[in-house]
Design a protein that fits this description.
The protein is of the alpha/beta class. Helices cover 37% and strands 25% of the residues. A six-stranded mixed sheet has the order 6-7-8-3-9-10, with helices on both faces. It has a four-stranded antiparallel sheet with strand order 2-1-4-5, covered by helices on one side.
């Protein structure tokens, strides 16, 4: 059974085709990666799933629900959360309070910002957030302000905020961007653990091919809004069109 089904998705911006009849499904419990050159449609696809973009054609289903009928702020109620290419943290809030914003579907965000939650409710939400921070290895940062924190910590806080919403599917948009080699290896391990330990399906957009090939169950390759390859890592690695796009040469050149 597929958690996420994309059917013939088409998205245009002022005549530019960002997605052209894109169809695939993401199975429950897998790490499914989207790769392709800049401008190939990866983030546009994420934005369609989240409701930020409304496609001109096609359908998106998650666990049988038609996501195109939902507004962006309601998508999270379906069990989908996401991170962004650029970190979206609030500098002068603590790391913990930034993460608690991910619980906005259960609590009043204004109450979170102003600390107006009841003591009981805050303790429940904080306990969950602290468990996730511990899972990601950033528990020691809970009361530190986000401003000035290392980039890697800010990226992990963004993942933590997405996890606090209790997703069934998490969309990770370039989680390793800007990371050094050690941090990238840590991110790879975290993504595996999100799948294996938390039981969350992962849809990943990433440019680091070593990371993608090492953790993905399946990979979809986009180019100019079209799917040119779909399969397991070994298939993708040896696909002639993928080799041509990434190496600028034909497979037998």
């Amino acid at each position: 059974m597929a958690d996420l089904i994309i059917e013939k998705l088409t998205m245009r911006f002022a005549g530019v085709v960002a997605l052209d009849d894109v169809s695939f499904s993401v199975k429950n419990g897998e790490i499914f990666s989207l790769i392709g050159p800049n401008g190939s449609g990866k983030t546009t696809l994420f934005n369609c799933i989240n409701g930020f973009n409304k496609p001109q054609g096609g359908k998106i289903y998650f666990n049988g629900d038609n996501l195109l009928d939902r507004r962006p702020h309601n998508i999270i109620d379906s069990g989908i959360s996401r991170t962004f290419q650029n970190v979206q943290n609030i500098p002068f809030m603590t790391v913990l309070d930034n993460i608690l914003l991910g619980a906005h579907s259960r609590i009043d965000v204004t109450a979170t910002l102003q600390r107006w939650l009841s003591q009981e409710q805050r303790e429940i939400e904080e306990a969950m957030a602290l468990d996730i921070m511990d899972f990601l290895g950033i528990a020691n940062y809970e009361q530190k302000y986000m401003v000035g924190q290392p980039f890697g910590i800010q990226k992990l806080a963004e993942i933590a905020r997405a996890l606090v919403s209790k997703p069934k599917l998490i969309l990770l948009d370039e989680p390793a961007a800007g990371m050094n080699d050690q941090e990238t290896r840590e991110i790879a391990n975290i993504i595996r653990e999100i799948k294996e330990d938390l039981g969350i399906t992962v849809l990943l957009v990433e440019h680091d091919m070593n990371l993608v090939m090492s953790i993905s169950d399946r990979i979809c390759v986009l180019d100019s809004g079209e799917i040119i390859a779909l399969g397991e890592p070994e298939e993708i690695k040896n696909h002639p069109k993928v080799i041509e796009i990434y190496l600028g040469e034909t497979a037998d050149a």
